[in-house]
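Tip: read the tokens left to right.
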């Protein structure tokens, strides 16, 4: 018993609530242009229609954002703070190992979150998924298992689990509807990550069925934006290309190489749009079944790379290395369901890429970011 009390005291002493001020780069990113299709005004999230949650998000709600330093988590923190939410609960990886059920349970007991955004995880591009499948499978399965169980044990009012569009079969018909889940083999280059994410969806559904917990899931498309992983080996498509072209320009290189053939098609969404969608779903969606979140628009990898080239290093020649994997030939989500609920993205690709590059340059000057963001 004494050891348990000592462990509880230690964990509690390491808990923090993140109230760090915005950097200038983050403030600039938050207020950047690119909201070309409208959007909803900042303020408490409480949508009054037949789909509204009985547990809306009052401004003093205790809200846990897991993985708050990552791409999605940091966007959620920005969005919540801009809307006036201040009682935000966070913990870094050093302060709380989300793979450890005992530690997570102690944290939930001490902090008592009312709403949980489960967006933490081990993520990366094709290279990272191929090199570390065991880590991608183990880490992500453990993270969602511990947080979902603790949310159940300590009476969380509502939890939103964030999956990934990689859950869908490699040869799924396009655009991909939610019903295509488990209809065929997965893309081999990210199979381990996809299996973990599918397990997370099914876990939330199981707790909803067995315990009537209000746990929901959303499946975002490919993301980009501030606080992404800009590592040249492990990063996502947009972040990796931004860094490659930026460093090539600084070195005076006239050629930049991208993986694959350039022919696959990808849907891209700015992470601030995803944060907006997460708050919308937290307030309005209580039904069984998950929801795709995306733009419904796709482009070839070549088109995306050329757009980034023209923005960052217009004089560079873009070449592709066909010996590297392409991944899925096409992946674009059917977003009819979330459109019917009343949400649409608001940041177009050109503006989003421009503001992301502005953030990257500012981040380099302010905190020396050139590779991966800090651990979540």
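Filled-in amino acids:
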């Amino acid at each position: 018993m004494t050891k348990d009390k000592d462990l509880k005291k230690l964990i509690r002493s390491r808990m923090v609530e993140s109230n760090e001020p915005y950097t200038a780069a983050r403030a600039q990113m938050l207020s950047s242009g690119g909201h070309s299709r409208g959007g909803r005004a900042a303020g408490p999230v409480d949508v009054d229609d037949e789909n509204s949650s009985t547990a809306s998000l009052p401004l003093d709600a205790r809200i846990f954002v897991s993985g708050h330093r990552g791409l999605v988590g940091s966007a959620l923190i920005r969005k919540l703070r801009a809307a006036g939410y201040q009682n935000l609960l966070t913990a870094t990886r050093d302060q709380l190992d989300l793979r450890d059920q005992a530690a997570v349970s102690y944290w939930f007991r001490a902090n008592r979150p009312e709403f949980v955004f489960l967006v933490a995880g081990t993520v990366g591009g094709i290279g990272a998924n191929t090199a570390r499948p065991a880590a991608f499978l183990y880490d992500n399965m453990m993270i969602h298992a511990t947080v979902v169980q603790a949310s159940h044990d300590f009476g969380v009012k509502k939890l939103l689990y964030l999956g990934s569009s990689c859950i869908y079969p490699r040869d799924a018909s396009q655009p991909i509807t939610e019903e295509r889940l488990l209809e065929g083999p997965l893309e081999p280059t990210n199979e381990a990550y996809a299996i973990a994410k599918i397990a997370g969806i099914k876990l939330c559904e199981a707790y909803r069925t067995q315990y009537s917990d209000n746990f929901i899931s959303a499946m975002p498309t490919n993301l980009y934006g501030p606080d992404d992983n800009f590592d040249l080996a492990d990063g996502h498509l947009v972040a990796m290309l931004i860094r490659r072209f930026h460093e090539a320009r600084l070195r005076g290189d006239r050629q930049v190489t991208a993986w694959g053939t350039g022919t696959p098609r990808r849907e891209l969404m700015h992470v601030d749009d995803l944060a907006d969608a997460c708050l919308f779903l937290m307030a309005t969606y209580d039904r069984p079944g998950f929801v795709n979140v995306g733009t419904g628009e796709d482009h070839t990898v070549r088109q995306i790379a050329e757009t980034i080239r023209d923005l960052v290093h217009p004089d560079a020649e873009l070449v592709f290395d066909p010996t590297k994997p392409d991944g899925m030939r096409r992946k674009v989500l059917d977003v009819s369901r979330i459109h019917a609920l009343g949400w649409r993205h608001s940041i177009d690709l050109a503006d989003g890429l421009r503001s992301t590059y502005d953030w990257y340059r500012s981040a380099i000057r302010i905190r020396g970011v050139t590779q991966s963001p800090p651990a979540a």
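The longest strand covers residues 215-220. The chain has one domain: 2-227+268-298+332-349.
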